[in-house]
Amino acid sequence: MPHPAVQIYLWICFTLAAQMLEARMLFLLAAIVILLSIKISKMRFLTLLRRSRWILFSVFIIYAFTSSGDLLWPQLGVFSPVVEGVVEGFLQLSRLAIVLAGLSILLTLLSQSQLISGIYMLIRPLACLGLSRERVSVRLALTLRYAESVMQGTSRNWQDSVERQLAHIPVASEFIELYVATFSMRDGLLVVAASVVLLGVWL
Question: What is the per-residue DSSP string for 99-113?
């Protein structure tokens, strides 16, 4: 398996490239990635979709009703969505679905310690600014642990969810071990290849 930092970097490049693809390639890529995500991390992907459903719905509504263009149903007047807005809304939903599908695959392939290790490697340039990579990594580990518990939790309504978030949680002292994997030549080649592909899509 590639270095965790490389896998995270590939996901970042993949996400950025998806924002620059034309409609036909974007829909094709979305179909492939979603099917792959369902095969590798079905439950996690469906959970991310469920947690993001109102954001996705809001994005589509905003594009469908605030864009300029021809009305989809002219007989409805101002209450009709716009054809160009509907198309652009589907494009944005496809981009967001690609991001969520790729993220679900990444979180499935990497354990928490591997994810922290990868980010620890990626934020190495921050050391030049005097920031402690260890401190940033530990804070990220605690944030991810909390976020994971929230994602797995279920509530019957929004009041229960708010009460659970506001409830006092006792914090015990603990240690977080940071595993730093070896960065190989193959990992370097993958980084270069991903960068070239992203540059090619951008140009």
Answer: HHHHHHHHHHHS-HH
